[in-house]
Design a protein that fits this description.
By secondary structure, the protein is an alpha+beta fold. It is built from nine helices and 14 strands. The longest helix has 22 residues. The protein starts with a helix and ends with a strand.
Length: about 325
């Protein structure tokens, strides 16, 4: 283990408690000069530390995203075996897709504090207020053909993994999680009627092969103003009344993604059935009226079914059953 990884693990695991400099140096088996250099290196990695002549040193709250802290003891079979964190990128989806050219990049997770050109579905922008330590902007690369892991199923599974991961992370951190996370077809995670997360799953071609990129954004500590987005947004912090550490949430989402991806690879039909059952439990759209535009046509009616592979089925006002697919549909 690198000295910098060892030190950040010691500081992170200590939480808001202090280390004396002598204790920290001893625990890491470093001399004072070397410890100072490592702390400088950690600051360059984006970590902020608080120093006190009387108390010593501790990590400031709202920890920066850190690949080592995310990867360590993650326990996944495929997703998140390799993690890269950037201060800023154009798009985490683009960066993850470019990683397909590298060997052993399957399951790569790319995170950024800021995106210059974050995207949502159908060319819309994904907005996350600028600044570090705010939200989760993440993409995962899968070197599987869309036939093996269908885009629509992965869109549904990624949204469910986000909802499951958030709840597991908050419960695991001892927070009284009363959040009622719901899912809106095909790619939104909702909290009390407002959007807290969105998903963009893309099929890309790299090095002559098709790959999938699972992109997601989670409003953890802040959210865009209503004037900047087409539908109201919210954040986890707004509902819980405190700023949150993003690392446990990232890790929990990666673990749930890993479960769903591995289930689809091993037993696709069983996974599809289970996904549909669990997803629909969180979906408030069934039997609700909605208007959709699909392939340039507008349909209004009652949602009667949502299938992770086959899409949404609408019973229109003219009593026609219309099935629309996520990749070509916008809900108004």
């Amino acid at each position: 283990m690198k000295s910098s990884d060892h030190i950040i693990a010691l500081l992170y695991d200590r939480g808001d408690r202090w280390w004396s400099m002598a204790e920290l140096a001893s625990a890491a088996n470093l001399g004072e000069v070397r410890l100072d250099r490592v702390l400088t290196e950690l600051a360059q990695r984006g970590h902020r530390m608080e120093f006190s002549p009387a108390m010593g040193i501790r990590l400031c709250p709202a920890t920066a995203l850190d690949a080592f802290l995310i990867e360590r003891d993650l326990g996944t079979q495929r997703i998140g075996r390799h993690v890269i964190c950037f201060p800023v990128v154009d798009s985490t989806n683009d960066t993850a897709a470019d990683g397909a050219r590298q060997r052993r990049s399957d399951g790569l997770a790319v995170l950024a504090e800021t995106q210059r050109k974050g995207r949502g579905r159908h060319g819309r922008r994904w907005l996350s207020p600028p600044g570090e330590k705010k939200n989760i902007l993440m993409s995962v690369l899968l070197k599987d053909t869309p036939e093996k892991l269908p885009v629509e199923a992965m869109t549904i599974a990624t949204g469910l993994a986000v909802a499951e991961g958030i709840e597991l992370a908050l419960t695991g951190r001892g927070l009284n999680c009363q959040l009622q996370l719901q899912l809106k077809w095909p790619n939104d995670v909702m909290l009390e009627g407002k959007k807290v997360s969105g998903v963009l799953v893309e099929k890309r071609q790299r090095a002559g092969k098709h790959v999938l990129v699972l992109g997601l954004g989670v409003n953890v500590n802040t959210h865009p103003a209503d004037t900047d987005v087409s539908a109201p947004a919210t954040s986890l912090a707004e509902h819980l009344g405190e700023q949150l550490d993003r690392i446990p949430i990232v890790r929990a989402i990666l673990r749930r993604l890993d479960v769903w991806v591995m289930e689809f690879v091993r037993e696709p039909q069983t996974a599809s059935d289970r996904l549909q059952k669990l997803w629909n439990r969180r979906c408030g759209m069934i039997n609700q009226r909605h208007t959709v535009i699909s392939r340039g046509r507008r349909h209004t009616g009652r949602v009667i079914a949502i299938d992770p592979l086959e899409g949404l089925t609408l019973l229109t006002d003219s009593n026609l059953s219309v099935r629309v697919h996520a990749q070509e549909t916008t809900i108004l």
